[in-house]
Design a protein that fits this description.
The protein has 295 residues and is an all-beta fold. Helix content is 0%, strand content 49%. Strand 9 (72-73) and strand 10 form a beta hairpin.
Length: 295
């Protein structure tokens, strides 16, 4: 399609609505949905290594506790982790990952400000014993291991590690897909390449309902602590398909297209009349004697 008259230093059309309207809606303070198994911002109290008491607005269906005892609760909320055997663990009471016939998964989220220096294998998040987001060789590695007939298989990808000294929001979705499974990871609004496998994650019996934030939950891997400050954590079960809208810690872009045209319509005076396939939310006026024609 073409405009039959070339106009220099002049606008071809006047739009009564913006071409693209976009906004970012960022997550606010911890606010639990009815389906959440855990959603806390550490406004309550960590009691030794055994428990956490919630405050109004937080949800905890199970037990949250320190793993070492030296994890420092910060004034106003949050927990400082020093690596090693330190971390925060959530043992869910409402669901388990061990069911071999499971058809659903979970979403887990955390907000963290990492320290600049980290040990190799430092684990940001772990679940079920063989599902993880951790550091290996300076890279962020995410995925899970599966086992079949006594043979283990690794399913994992890597990406740039979150920078130290600044806050980051991570969202992990693990879903069962037929006989297999998928792991989706988003960081600071960017969805990374998903891990897709024909087999599900192997679940450790001792950690079937356990989720680690700042450390792993496998009994042989609890020395893989991550260094940094956790400000909030969330777990929600029952996820049956990947759904970015379930990542409540990620910014949600809101966009709407109000103009998309190839000028194949007609003119009524100076007003453009949309053709089939055009998107025109508002009025489009032609100026300077410009016309449209097929070709």
């Amino acid at each position: 399609m073409r405009v039959s008259r070339t106009l220099k230093h002049r606008s071809l059309a006047v739009l009564s609505a913006a071409v693209i309207v976009g906004a970012l809606v960022t997550p606010g303070a911890a606010s639990a949905a009815e389906t959440d198994d855990l959603d806390i911002a550490f406004g309550g109290s960590l009691v030794g290594t055994t428990a956490y008491t919630t405050v109004e607005g937080e949800t905890m269906r199970g037990v949250v506790h320190r793993t070492n005892g030296a994890e420092e609760q910060l004034p106003g909320g949050g927990v400082s982790l020093g690596g090693g055997t330190q971390g925060i663990r959530f043992d869910a009471s409402g669901f388990t990952l061990a069911d071999p016939g499971a058809t659903s998964g979970f979403v887990a989220e955390l907000s963290v400000t990492p320290q600049t220096s980290q040990d190799d294998m430092a684990t940001l998040f772990g679940a079920g014993g063989n599902l993880f987001v951790r550091l290996e060789g300076g890279q962020l590695v995410y995925g899970f291991d599966s086992v079949s007939g006594g043979s283990w298989t690794k399913h994992r990808l890597n990406a740039a590690a979150p920078a130290g000294g600044t806050g980051h929001d991570l969202s992990v979705q693990y879903i069962r897909a037929g006989a297999g499974a998928e792991l989706h990871l988003a960081i600071d609004g960017v969805a990374l390449e998903p891990v897709i496998s024909s087999a599900p994650a192997a679940i450790s019996a001792e950690a079937a309902a356990s989720f680690g934030f700042g450390n792993d939950v496998h009994p042989a891997a609890t020395g893989r602590g991550y260094k940094g400050d956790l400000s909030r954590i969330r777990v929600a079960s029952g996820l049956t398909a990947y759904d970015p809208a379930q990542n409540t810690y990620q910014p949600a872009p809101v966009t709407r297209t109000v103009l998309n045209t190839g000028f194949s319509g007609t003119l009524d005076g100076t007003t453009y009349k949309a053709a089939a396939g055009d998107v025109l939310a508002g009025a489009l006026a032609m100026r300077g004697g410009a016309t449209v024609s097929s070709g």
